[in-house]
Amino acid sequence: MNDADCAPSPTAVDPSVPPSTEATADPAGVPFAALDPRLLREQRTSLKWTRFAPDVLPLFVAEMDFAIAPEIQRAMIERVQASDLGYVDGAGALAPAFTAFALDRWGWHIPDEHVHLATDVATAVVEALRVGRPAGGRLAISTPTYPGFFEMLEEVPFEVVEVPLTGDAGAGTDAPGRATSGSAVLAPPVRLDLAAIERAFASDPGIDAFILCNPHNPHGLVHTQADLAELARLAAAHDVFVVSDEIHAPLTFPGARFTPFAPLAAEAGALSVSTLSASKGWNLAGAKCAVLVAADASANELLRRLPPETVTRVSILGLHANAAAFTAGREWLDRAIAQVQANVALLTDLVSRRLPGVRLVAPEAGYLVWLDLRGAGLGSNPYSRILHDARVALNDGAAFGAGGAGYARINVACAPQTIHAAVDRIASILPPFDGGASPESRSPNLDLEESR
Prior knowledge:
With about 450 residues, the protein is of the alpha/beta class. Helices cover about 35% and strands about 15% of the residues. It has helices at about 5, 35-45, 45-50, 70-80, 95-105, 120-130, 145-150, 195-200, 225-235, 260-270, 295-305, 310, 315-330, 330-355, 380-390, 415-425; strands at about 55-60, 115-120, 135-145, 160-165, 165, 190, 210-215, 240-245, 270-275, 290-295, 360, 370, 390-395, 395, 405-410. A seven-stranded mixed sheet has the order 2-10-9-8-7-3-4, sandwiched between helices. A four-stranded antiparallel sheet has the order 11-12-15-14, covered by helices on one side. Strand 7 (about 210-215), helix 9 (about 225-235) and strand 8 (about 240-245) form a beta-alpha-beta unit. Helix 4 packs antiparallel against helix 13 and helix 8 runs parallel beside helix 9. The longest helix is centred in the last third of the chain and has 25 residues, at about 330-355. The two termini are about 40 Å apart.
């Protein structure tokens, strides 16, 4: 077998040339024309392509349209050819693959024995809470945030306490990686409300656990080291167990600096574990494999209590796919990040020119963009209007907890033409805007082939 056996397209991509809105192919070399949603709907069977009617553009769930990296395809095919489809009994090759990636990208030193497995990040969060706080209690979370947290927490005996994010007092500074709101189309940046978190931790009856979303979904917020260090100090002072979901960390943009929470927790003496996977960075959600990483020896002893099924339910194909991603898939990842950045820039430009009243949060990581639709004149439920009238499926901001109503989340890991088409459709249903868009800029164009 050679590279051509696994290549999704004969079109080659020079990894030294970052993609842009002028690029013609995705990070794997597949032409953007082949990523037309009408074609992908015929080829793929995940919920992204089955949840809604065929005339709906699916830009909701966090799945990329980009083709899988050939290096990952090859690793999975080799396992199938070897009939290596049995049960998993440990992290195996994934532990050194992940720890090397974490050291190289983030300067995070992790002993291989501190790496444990779970089926996916959602399972990892739940199982960590079960062994870390078996009696349950009160759990704090910063909102608006990933809706899946609320769903998974139904499996454990916790009362959820929402602590909304707050405005970033440092906006407009030259802090490295910190997004600013210098444009009218950009919504003000946000950050963890550490004062409110401290009040919650110090309250009676207090907080037993905290879920940290790092980077934060849906804002694409890369928390500063100073904020995370203060969170670690507060957690140690109030005996709060912190589970850090860092699934979007590999997708951090150049110029932003991702800080793993575990080293800060260990330094502060806070009990903490982190969970990550290649599933978001390399589009492997269905491969079903994630890592749970102990922040220190105490946390590692905690993770040794995980039920054996936590490991045996992991997909062996997912394990090898993750290992291939962290070792051989780095150039593909870098090309994907560059294309996502180009797509974010494209969306920002289109929103500013075509969608008056809409603002967005400039992400620092990931391919999900948080849209403020409250000023667009689409009523109290803009998500529903866009779905039913424009035939574009986003994520409803109301599902993200306190502060999410009137917002929506859009996935931009797709061909640029798909972003054009989505904006065309949304623009076609917007009401007249005082001093805003001209009639020409409001004309709908629902044909992906003609949308440029």
